[in-house]
Predict the 3D structure of the following.
Amino acid sequence: MISADYDGLVAATRATLARIAADFTPAVFASSLAAEDMVLTDLILRAKLPIGIFTLETGRLHAETLGMLDRIREAYGYEVAAYRPDTAAVEAYVQQNGLNAFYDSVDMRKECCRIRKVDPLNRALAGNKAWITGQRRAQSATRSDLHVQEEDVAHGMVKFNPLADWSEEDVWHYIRSNDVPYNPLHDRGYPSIGCEPCTRAIAPGEDVRAGRWWWENPESKECGLHVVDGKLIRIKQIA
Ligand code: SF4
């Protein structure tokens, strides 16, 4: 359902982003290039905020997801920075375990995510005061306690989730009413998009994150970007 105070929600999100740009420079936005992240991309770039945008180019993304880099360049004239995994680490993992060993166990999956996502994320975040994600509270069981502003003790910086209060319908209302480019996979049953071999389309009525690591329990379904030593890094709510 679209939020009753949708306009207020958008205004609050604009204000949050402006506050980040004013008080937390340098700040970066970690974009997965999915729908939520396109809303934030649009808000940041239209307002010309000094917030860098990057994505984790894992080497296993769908062609449609990679195509979003071109769509963003065409629509906004902006080049999203792509952080890639260490080649030697990827080669060692594949040589020792196989290209798709992440299907074998949660540990194997987390090791692949560490190499392809977590380590590049740490490089992308280094030297910043704050980082931003497009996570929403309603997305999954692991995100039910998400707040707009949190302290990321693992990375030693503030983490912002400006869309924490948004519904899925709010996201799509913003995209459609502002003509924001979006990943065509969303129209083919992919509400949540990750790496190609770890994401499947979902059936109507399924949980929006049911297509991510669908062979695992819901509790283990985070890539490690928001988890350290098995704990969510949302240790302390700030606002
Ligand atoms: S989502 Fe899958 S392919 Fe991508 S880094 Fe994680 S385990 Fe590897």
DSSP finds six helices and nine strands in the chain. Residues 106-125 form the longest helix (20 residues).
